[in-house]
């Protein structure tokens, strides 16, 4: 293997170790309380490795959020596939995203610390990908005359925004489980309003 290939492998291994250590620290202590010195020591690395790979602690949080967000998207896609396609798949994907707000790691890192440090989650790159997927799904459902003729981008933004805001509500609630049922029911009712009556 060439030196450049080995270097790239080592760099990827370093990044993975830092992300794993940060993910554990952020989940346990929260972003603000997680010490960079403890985090890098846990990974067996130096602060210099963190700065070199992520720029700063905020950059490391972004990498952790991206990783968890990707896992959330995969879980939502699996639930959509299990629903068998069509409108039920669209609904299942949104509900899966909302339900993930009950997971402590998702709550703390993605839904509480993420927005506080990284800003509006509706502007995160992962949300753009979800939006494009939802638009395509709606275009297909409109063409199949399952959903009313509505602007697919507008509907996709509202559906994704509803799922995101439901998840944020659950994460911030004193009793997340009590809020979940209300949020899922309202989400289901909102989405069902798009269905054609004929």
Automatic annotation (TrEMBL):
Keywords: DNA-binding. Residues 35-54 bind DNA. The keyword DNA-binding applies. One of its GO terms (molecular function) is transcription cis-regulatory region binding. The keyword DNA-binding applies. Residues 12-72 form the HTH tetR-type domain. Signal peptide: none annotated. InterPro entries: Homeodomain-like_sf (IPR009057), HTH-type_TetR-like_transc_reg (IPR050109), HTH_TetR (IPR001647), Rv0078-like_C (IPR049484). Gene3D superfamilies: Tetracycline Repressor, domain 2. SUPFAM superfamilies: Homeodomain-like. Pfam families: TetR_C_41, TetR_N. PANTHER family: HTH-TYPE TRANSCRIPTIONAL REGULATOR RUTR, HTH-TYPE TRANSCRIPTIONAL REGULATOR UIDR. This is AcrR family transcriptional regulator. It comes from Aureimonas phyllosphaerae.
